[in-house]
Every structure is written in structure tokens, then in C-alpha cells.
UniProtKB/TrEMBL annotation:
Superkingdom to which the source organism belongs: Bacteria
Name of the protein this chain belongs to: ArsR family transcriptional regulator
Transmembrane spans: none
Molecular-function GO terms, alphabetical: DNA-binding transcription factor activity
Taxonomic source organism: Sulfidibacter corallicola
Record-annotated HTH arsR-type domain positions: 13-57
């Protein structure tokens, strides 16, 4: 079953069609009813359900007949239901750069990319634990799943769902990029100790 078919089964055919139509552009109830060939009253309960699940939201109003009609659009959460090719693209991009660049040049590009990403976030402040927690939040914000662990030697960020797993599988530079990013965010020396066989991300800070 494909990603799209799985989401269709999860949401049900009507709600999935509504999400797909709203992904193209915001629409009001009457427009959606006409697209699905049903009545407006048949559409409204599905929109209420989608809104409750934070998959659609009201984006405005338009004149439709005697009174203004609510216009709906999909949310960022709903957008995540659709497959993305970021990991696949990055995988081949890094492989192509490795074939054409000297190792030092590729390392410099990786470091520069990490620094650019780090500038998207405000600087971390506080204790080492607070800064490491901040890095965990950044990983989650970027689409991963991670938690902070306290170790005998310091702290570790353990990842459970890498958004770039497809690229990291055969490109160690991707894990290096993540380590540099975490270091830039925290102002700490972060070591990459990922399990490449299990594609399990792990980054550690060793206290003095």
C-alpha cells in the first residue's frame, strides 16, 4: 500500500478527497460539495472533523448567495500526510558532490550548510542541560524524533526517527552535518555516534 493509499484508508475516502482538493487551493463548502457531487450538508460534518484534527482551518470568508461563506485551507499538519522526496534528493545530491569534490571541499560545504541551518534558530542559552534540550527541540522542529539522555560522561541526544534516513544510509556526511548543526546550536562540542546499520541517530556531549 502506498503512502497516499494508507492516508486515504486512515482518513476515509471523503475526508481524503477534501484534503486533496484543499491542497490545490482554499475553497468554501459549496465548491467542495460540487467537486464531490454531494450536498453542502454532507460536507460540513467532514470539515468539522478535519478542523478538530487540525488538518484544515478557516482562512477567510467570501460572498456566496445571501451570506458570507467560510473558506477552508489545509494546515501544515495536513501537508505532512503527503510523501516528500527530500531524503532521496539529498542522497543523490551528496553522492554527486562526493564524486566531483575533494574531501576537504565537501566537508566545508557540509559545515557551511549546518551553520546556515543553525542561524534559523535563536541562540541557545542556559545550562548545558538546557542547551541540549533546546537542540532536541530543534531536531523535532525539523521533523525528527529525539530525546535527551544523561550519561556517565555527559549527555546524549538519541534519535528515533531521522527525517533524512534515506540520505544518511550511505552518506556519512549527512550525519556529520547534523552533528555540526547541534554543535552550532548549543555552543558545545558534539560527537556523532550514530548506528549506521540500524539508522539510529545518536549525538553525545562529553563533559570535561
Amino acid at each position: 500500500m502506498t503512502h497516499a493509499h494508507w492516508n486515504q484508508s486512515l482518513l476515509g475516502p471523503t475526508r481524503w478527497q477534501l484534503v486533496c482538493h484543499l491542497r490545490r487551493k482554499p475553497r468554501h463548502v459549496k465548491e467542495l460539495a460540487e467537486l464531490l457531487g454531494v450536498t453542502s450538508n454532507a460536507i460540513r460534518p467532514h470539515l468539522v472533523s478535519l478542523e478538530r484534527d487540525r488538518l484544515v482551518r478557516v482562512s477567510g470568508r467570501v460572498q456566496s448567495g445571501g451570506k458570507p461563506a467560510l473558506v477552508y485551507e489545509i494546515t501544515e499538519i495536513a501537508e505532512q500526510l503527503f510523501p516528500k522526496a527530500f531524503g532521496l534528493i539529498l542522497k543523490h545530491l551528496v553522492a554527486s558532490m562526493r564524486d566531483q569534490l575533494e574531501p576537504d571541499d565537501l566537508e566545508q560545504i557540509v559545515a557551511d550548510t549546518a551553520c546556515r541551518l543553525a542561524r534559523l534558530f535563536p541562540p541557545a542559552r542556559g545550562s548545558i542541560r538546557e542547551r541540549m534540550n533546546y537542540a532536541v527541540e530543534a531536531v523535532i522542529h525539523l521533523g525528527g524524533l529525539a530525546e535527551l539522555e544523561e550519561t556517565e560522561r555527559g549527555f546524549a541526544i538519541q534519535g528515533y526517527s531521522c527525517p533524512l534516513a534515506e540520505a544518511a544510509d550511505c552518506n556519512p556526511e549527512v550525519c556529520r552535518l547534523a552533528a555540526v548543526l547541534l554543535g552550532e546550536l548549543t555552543g558545545l562540542e558534539i560527537a556523532e555516534v550514530c548506528d549506521k546499520e540500524k539508522v539510529a541517530c545518536r549525538f553525545e556531549y562529553f563533559s570535561e
